[in-house]
Design goal:
single chain, 3 strands
């Protein structure tokens, strides 16, 4: 049986990070399709859900990506994968930070990871975080390239967009509320494809 106090503290922390935005039926359907209920994942992996919640509150595992409207904490199905690679939650921070040469950037990415806001990736790993950042930077810079608008440029641009598309899930309307505007898929996938159609 879950401890209601620990569950309530985690929900409060989630809203502190993400704001208090309502989840619609479409949002609920999206997160049910793309994410996993924390309690179900803990049962499947032999973990105590309240202990996992305490690790989240202590900044040793990431917060849930979403709170479904029924209160379920929705997390990636590979939530524990990075901690397992690192050698456990106690070793996770150092292992994670070591993937960046610039420790200021590393700390910023660690904070974003702990906030559970990497819902922009199908699988949250340091490599995928770095890859996404590089792709977004390249796509946003593409219009300033000397050969912008040429067939060769469009082919390069669409290769970048396709790679980003493969990393990212579809997102849901809730994401556009908590991130206060268009998400990276809107800006760097959908808008780019609409503005620069592929050559026939």
């Amino acid at each position: 049986m879950s401890d209601p106090e620990v569950k309530a503290r985690l929900a409060a922390r989630f809203r502190e990070v993400n704001g208090d935005h309502p989840m619609t039926a479409d949002d609920d359907a999206y997160v049910t399709a793309w994410f996993t209920d924390l309690e179900a994942l803990c049962r499947a992996t032999g973990r105590d859900a309240d202990q996992v919640r305490r690790l989240m509150l202590a900044g040793r595992l990431p917060l849930p990506g979403y709170l479904r409207s029924d209160g379920a904490e929705m997390v990636p199905s590979d939530l524990f994968g990075l901690a397992e690679q690192a050698g456990g939650p106690d070793a996770l921070e150092g292992w994670f930070l070591a993937h960046w040469d610039d420790q200021t950037t590393a700390r910023e990415e660690w904070a974003a990871y702990l906030d559970g806001q990497y819902v922009c990736l199908r699988s949250v790993t340091p490599r995928n975080i770095q890859c996404k950042d590089a792709l977004v930077t390249a796509i946003e810079a593409a219009p300033t390239e000397p050969d912008a608008g040429t067939p060769a440029w469009r082919r390069r641009l669409h290769a970048l967009v396709d790679e980003l598309d493969a990393l990212e899930p579809p997102f849901t309307a809730y994401d556009r509320l908590r991130f206060a505007g268009p998400v990276s898929r809107d800006r760097c996938v959908d808008a780019v494809r609409a503005r620069h159609p592929r050559d026939a």
